[in-house]
Write a structure and sequence with these properties.
This protein has four helices and three strands. A three-stranded antiparallel β-sheet has the order 1-3-2. A hairpin with a 2-residue loop joins β2 and β3.
């Protein structure tokens, strides 16, 4: 079974503020579960959100390739 986190635990896990995590929930940018008035997040959903924001590094070849298109 996947670990279920509170807002506070999720914020601590990703080293961000609770306000940021609450904003993700309010904007529905991350899946969550509502238990009464409490909000819970699955650890796997939190990890998926972080992985979705991954940006790959740019290489010199990418820069030169991009310059050819800009001209």
């Amino acid at each position: 079974m996947d670990e279920v986190l509170t807002i506070e635990q999720a914020a601590a896990r990703i080293k961000m503020s609770e306000r940021y995590v609450r904003r993700l929930v309010a904007e529905r940018r991350i899946p969550f579960h509502k238990l009464g008035r409490s909000v819970r997040l699955k650890a796997s959903d939190l990890a998926a959100h972080i992985d979705a924001g991954r940006v790959e590094p740019i290489t010199a070849a990418d820069v030169w390739r991009g310059l050819g298109r800009a001209a």
